């Protein structure tokens, strides 16, 4: 059974603490790797939270860093134990973007820019099915259904009665004009988008074609922010074979500034809602 503990966030917090202990000791990742007879890349993966960490790893690292306070060691050992539990998404099997799901599940707010499609958290089931089938033409129908189920489960963060995810979405007009599935399906999707945009914690803005060049032309990205101040914000960039997670303050700041420019150049909330509704009517003809 999946645990309520978020293993992705536990690994991330644990990695941050281990990095802090290493830096307090004045050691490089290479020096630690030499002491433990492991690769430097393993130490880096443990610190960035992308790899499961065992209690034995924690014990060995605390030994290298000469951590004498047993309360600190015990706390880190418990975090390592928690980080090896399973989140709800593990029940669906191997999900390529499971790290992202773990972060999204614990996020307080999410800012998304998408130039091509409606973001997953705001998709209808038919739209999601048609989109995944078109984007991954060699995927078996069973795997498509699994991906759709995961997407719908993720959407529960939007409808949660307590502490729903604060979602801000900026879309390019292309995402509204691209016919995924058929025109009837697109009408339903855009009407759903208008409906969701009326939720107090969901904001949708559109950048129309006639706005011309804008800072989002380099492609899709998302910025996740967390309720715990100890968890730094993350920029997520989805790839075909691998994803990119940016956590350095300077990188996050650059993408945040770029997002502010996108919001400023986009139609305001009311204009965007009307813009989407007008295109939905075009699909009804």
UniProtKB/TrEMBL annotation:
Top-level division of the source organism's lineage: Bacteria
Record-linked InterPro entries: Cro/C1-type_HTH, DUF5753, Lambda_DNA-bd_dom_sf
GO terms, molecular function: DNA binding
Domain HTH cro/C1-type, chain residue ranges per copy: 18-73
The protein, known as: Transcriptional regulator
Organism taxonomic ancestry: Bacteria, Bacillati, Actinomycetota, Actinomycetes, Kitasatosporales
């Amino acid at each position: 059974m999946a645990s309520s503990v978020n293993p992705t966030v536990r690994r991330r917090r644990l990695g941050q603490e281990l990095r802090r202990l290493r830096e307090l000791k004045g050691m490089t990742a290479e020096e630690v790797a030499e002491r433990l007879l492991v690769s430097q890349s393993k130490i880096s993966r443990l610190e960035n939270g992308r790899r499961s960490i065992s209690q034995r790893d924690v014990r060995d690292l605390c030994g290298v860093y000469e951590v004498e306070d047993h309360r600190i060691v015990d706390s880190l050992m418990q975090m390592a134990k928690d980080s090896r539990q399973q989140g709800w998404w593990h029940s669906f099997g191997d999900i390529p973007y499971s790290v992202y799901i773990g972060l999204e599940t614990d996020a307080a707010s999410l800012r998304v820019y998408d130039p091509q499609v409606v973001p997953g958290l705001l998709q209808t089931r038919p739209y999601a099915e048609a989109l995944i089938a078109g984007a991954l033409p060699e995927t078996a129908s069973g795997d498509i259904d699994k991906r759709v189920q995961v997407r719908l489960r993720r959407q529960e963060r939007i409808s949660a009665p307590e502490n729903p995810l604060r979602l801000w979405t900026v879309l390019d007009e292309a995402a509204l004009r691209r016919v995924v599935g058929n025109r009837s399906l697109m009408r339903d999707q855009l009407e759903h988008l208008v409906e969701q945009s009326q939720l107090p914690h969901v904001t949708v803005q559109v950048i129309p074609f006639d706005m011309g060049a804008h800072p989002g032309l380099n492609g899709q990205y998302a910025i996740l922010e967390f309720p715990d101040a100890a968890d730094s914000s993350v920029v997520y960039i989805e790839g075909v074979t691998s994803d990119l997670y940016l956590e350095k303050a300077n990188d996050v700041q650059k993408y945040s500034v770029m997002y502010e420019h996108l919001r400023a150049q986009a139609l305001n909330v009311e204009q965007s809602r009307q813009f989407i509704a007008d295109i939905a009517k075009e699909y009804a003809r």
